[in-house]
Design goal:
The complex is a heterodimer of chains A (about 300) and B (about 325). With about 300 residues, chain A is α/β, with parallel strands linked by helices. Chain A is about 30% helix and about 20% strand. Chain A has 10 helices and 12 strands. Classes of the chains: A alpha/beta (about 300), B alpha/beta (about 325).
Chain lengths: ~300, ~325
């Protein structure tokens, strides 16, 4: 299986953003998806650095892909979406609006925020030119197996969420701004202080979610370490690893060890948790009763 | 033209009550996982659907059948059967969210009118026009992330009719793109047609303080005498940083009655009322009020004042994303 790095979901300062892609040039990953996924207001801060990141990664032998926004509503956002194919790299569709701007027949990939739940949807997207689909994270293993087989028949590589805080919802409202008593249009970039999202706790002070501007993520880091073999057996082509602010290159290395058999699931999970005592893992979407459930002991 | 009132019916009795109260159109679903209000005791079997549609047609009303969950891999036949049965029961249109199902309906049931569900989150004219070209859709239910001027701009760029929510429960997340319930309870709006389901709710009374848990997570606590709203995830109480409270949305419901003239000016075709889980008396009263309001708007008369306030959840309501400051 391959390793794909998904787009950074958080708002980082430009230097930290650029450093991630410098670091990934030497990390054991195959594909890197970059660009702004969550909020169009963040893009001007690093837009100028995207061409350099693309060429650094491409020179290092990585396949580089540019993501669309997850939710396109404003005129400005439609223009940004229309301009994506002009960057000269493959586009990852995370909002179907993007399809309206891809010339028919242009190969593209589909990200986890497009609802691909069944074979008919997969086949329709394949007919439009999809060559790779990262499935929605909430799909159970039974569905993944069926869709991986359907993808194989149609020449579509199937990718599954492998690691990281998982996107659970996207809204028109910015929760970071709201928490600071502001509106989205006057947010003053309230999300910039939380490079992995802001922890949201229950009334019992139990960690539960993470706030990231207009996006809501899981508190737990979804990890498929215990399902990697089952996913490989199903014919899944790649695992998606989602960037986090610390230790991400090391995490990429741990998943590579798992794939090549020099690390086992339990020790990889323990190593991930050992990097930060506040890291909680989950894999319930694939095999549990609830998304938040974890099948391991770590 | 008078805007169309599109009214929910969770039961045949609610359908009849809504028709008698003056609804132009009723929407409902089959009693299974094919619709996004898959609650115990709600919705229609095939016979009820056929009879309900006949009743509505006899009284000059239309019926839309919502088949708006995302078909499960390996089991798409269940959803295909629902589309076929909706057509044979005489439905005026089906409301669909899944691309694969829209494609199936367009190919296999070309004579059956297709609407795009709010669950498809079609939030701009490009996406709506793509659905029109690919699947011949005639109407889109807009997601609750748009302001009134944005809705007007969409209508200026598409021939597809638009339908907007004006009253009832309010999703604060883009619909069809939310897995919060799936994460906490394993039951998902997209896959199971259920959000924050009742079988995962627990209440615990300690010295008069009532805690509400969903999927084991305590998301509301009411002191003695305080009201305890149903623990819906996005309207729960949480803490983050040094803040605590309803961080995503207050326990409010949507009420856009005052915006009816503006929505009409924005080119909206139909006004949708949420609440297939509601009683027939509630449905009838809401329909009567909204029917009076659209008739007044069409005649250029002022909106009846405060007509819906007493029907709102927890007595508190919002105009949601229709006003830009909500964001």
């Amino acid at each position: 299986m391959q390793l794909t790095v998904g787009p950074n979901q958080f708002f980082w300062d430009t230097e930290r953003w650029a450093a991630l892609y410098d670091e990934l040039a030497t990390a054991p990953v195959d594909r890197v998806v970059l660009g702004e996924l969550v909020c169009s207001k963040r893009l001007p801060f690093f837009q100028d650095r995207i061409p350099q990141a693309i060429s650094t990664l491409a020179e290092a032998g990585k396949t580089v892909v540019l993501t669309s926004l997850a939710l396109v509503t404003l005129k400005r956002e439609r223009k940004l979406t229309a301009a994506l194919p002009e960057m000269g790299v493959e586009v990852e569709v995370n909002d179907l609006t993007t399809l309206a701007y891809l010339p028919e027949g242009t190969p593209f990939s589909v990200g986890p925020l497009v609802n691909v739940y069944n074979e008919s949807t997969l086949a329709w997207l394949a007919g439009r030119g999809a060559t790779r689909i990262c499935l929605p994270p909430e799909l159970p293993l039974a569905s993944v197996r069926i869709l991986a087989a359907a993808g194989a028949d149609l020449g579509v590589a199937i990718e599954v969420w492998g690691h990281g805080r998982v996107p659970l919802a996207i809204s028109g409202r910015c929760y970071h701004a709201r928490m600071h008593g502001r509106t989205k249009d006057n947010c003053q970039f309230a999300c910039e202080d939380d490079p992995d999202g802001l922890d949201v706790r229950t009334m019992d002070d139990q960690p539960f979610l993470a706030m990231n501007g207009v996006q809501t993520l899981s508190d737990s880091y979804v990890s498929c370490v215990h399902q990697t073999q089952a996913l490989a057996d199903a014919g899944v082509a790649a695992l998606r690893l989602s960037p986090q602010s610390t230790g991400f290159a090391k995490i990429c290395g741990l998943y590579r060890q798992l794939l090549v058999g020099t690390g086992d699931a339990t020790s990889v999970a323990a190593a991930i948790c050992g990097m930060d005592e506040n890291t909680r893992l989950s894999d319930g979407f694939l095999t549990g009763a609830r998304g938040v459930d974890w099948s391991g002991t770590a | 033209m008078v805007m169309e009132i599109v009214c929910p019916a969770g039961t045949p009795a609610a359908l009849r009550a809504a028709v008698k109260a003056g609804a132009h159109t009723i929407y409902c679903g089959f009693a299974d996982e094919t619709n996004a209000r898959n609650f115990p005791g709600l919705n229609f079997d095939r016979t009820e659907m056929r009879e309900g549609i006949a009743f509505a047609h006899f009284h000059g009303a239309k019926v839309l059948v919502a088949i708006n969950t995302f078909p499960r891999a390996g089991d798409e036949a269940i959803w295909h059967r629902a589309v076929g049965d909706a057509e044979s029961c005489g439905a005026d249109a089906v409301i669909l969210a899944d691309i694969g199902l829209l494609d199936h309906a367009a190919r296999s049931h070309p004579g059956l009118r297709r609407h795009v569900s709010v669950q498809a989150a079609a939030a701009n004219a490009d996406m709506i026009n793509l659905y029109a070209v690919e699947f011949g859709i005639r109407r889109v239910v807009l997601p609750r992330v748009l302001s009134v001027p944005e809705i007007a701009a969409i209508n200026a760029e598409t021939e597809v009719e638009t339908e907007v929510f004006v009253f009832g429960g309010l999703c604060v997340m883009a619909e069809g793109r939310c897995s919060l319930s799936s994460y906490a309870t394993g039951q998902s709006p997209n896959m199971n047609g259920a959000c924050s389901p009742a079988e995962h709710v627990e209440y615990n009374d300690q010295a008069g303080v009532l805690s509400a848990r969903l999927g084991g997570f305590t998301i509301h606590r009411a002191a003695p005498g305080e009201s305890a709203p149903y623990p819906t995830l996005c309207k729960g109480c949480f803490s983050a940083g040094d803040k605590s409270g309803h961080l995503f949305e207050d326990p409010v419901s949507l009420n856009a009655e005052h915006l009816i003239p503006q929505l009409q000016k924005a080119g909206v075709t139909a006004l949708k009322i949420e609440g297939r889980q509601r009683s027939r008396s509630y449905v009838a009263q809401v329909v009567r009020n909204f029917r009076a309001a659209v008739d007044a708007a069409d005649a250029g008369l002022p909106m009846p004042e405060g007509m819906m306030a007493q029907l709102s959840e927890g007595q508190s309501s919002t105009a949601g994303a229709y006003r830009k400051t909500w964001r």
